[in-house]
Amino acid sequence: MTDRLTLRRHIRHCRNQLSTQQQNDAAQAVIDHVRRADHLSSARAVALYLANDGELDPHPLIEWYWSRGSRVYLPVLHPFSPGHLLFLHYTPDTPLQANRFGIPEPRLDSRLILPKSELELIFTPLVAFDAQGNRMGMGGGFYDRTLAGWRNGPGPQPVGLAHNCQQVDSIPVDSWDVPLPELITPGRHWRW
Ligand SMILES: Nc1nc2c(c(=O)[nH]1)N(C=O)[C@@H](CNc1ccc(C(=O)N[C@@H](CCC(=O)O)C(=O)O)cc1)CN2
Ligand SMILES: Nc1ncnc2c1ncn2[C@@H]1O[C@H](COP(=O)(O)OP(=O)(O)OP(=O)(O)O)[C@@H](O)[C@H]1O
Fold first, then answer.
1. For the whole model, what pTM was predicted?
2. Which of 25, 38, 48, 169 could lock 58 by a disulfide, CB 3.0 to 4.6 Å apart?
3. Which residue CA neighbors atom 22 of ligand 1 most closely?
4. TM segments (predicted)?
5. Residues flanking ligand 2, CB < 6 Å
6. How many domains does the structure of the chain reveal?
7. Is 184:164 a contact under the CB 8 Å cutoff?
8. Which residue segment(s) compose the domain that 57 sits in?
9. CATH number of the domain that 70 lies in?
10. Per-residue b/e over 88-126, b at no fewer than 16 CB within 10 Å?
11. Residue 55's CB: how many other CB atoms inside 10 A?
């Protein structure tokens, strides 16, 4: 088993090597998987993210949800609770600003916050996944904290998004890691 740091470095490199054409094709292929899955296509309140560091770009999927009248939310780093995320409503007119990682996020406005429990789906970015549904992120624990305990309550269902090249043989798992019940790559809709 490779250590987390080496895995992260390796996979971040592979996704950053994808061409614009490959990125665009991947984003379209993901929409096709979402269209075919009723529980995903019918969702009315979904959290997505803005692509960073070669991640699968969900913007075409965001526009697809908008076109259906669904509401889209983006993660915002919590201003006082380190390691935690807020989810803010996102429309084409939402003012964005870069967070401390350089990722654009909606400017904090309490009127735009949706309590996590009211989301139906949280599409999660990730660095690497394995065939058992284990996920490894950028290392901040933000999504692990957001998803902790989701199976025990009525909250949102997580759905990972990744490029095919982000699959690895096995992920070193820690006690706080939350395995995914579902993940979409351009090549496959995984369900566990
Ligand atoms: N698109 C996207 N948005 C997201 C996440 C994500 O993984 N992708 N996050 C998911 O958690 C949160 C941000 N977490 C992040 C954690 C680390 C780094 C990062 O680039 N770290 C640098 C070094 C750290 C630094 O600059 O201080 C690195 O590893 O090179 C980026 C985002 C919230 N928003
Ligand atoms: N539910 C949690 N409660 C408290 N601390 C947590 C929790 N989940 C993760 N952490 C802390 O966050 C740190 C980073 O975790 P990890 O490296 O697994 O993040 P990641 O899965 O790569 O990132 P992300 O979830 O943001 O995509 C760890 O040191 C861990 O202690």
1. 0.97
2. 48
3. 101
4. none
5. 136-145, 148, 174, 176-177
6. 1
7. no
8. 4-191
9. 3.40.50.10420
10. bbbeeebeeeeeeeebebbeeeeebeeebeebbbbbbbb
11. 22
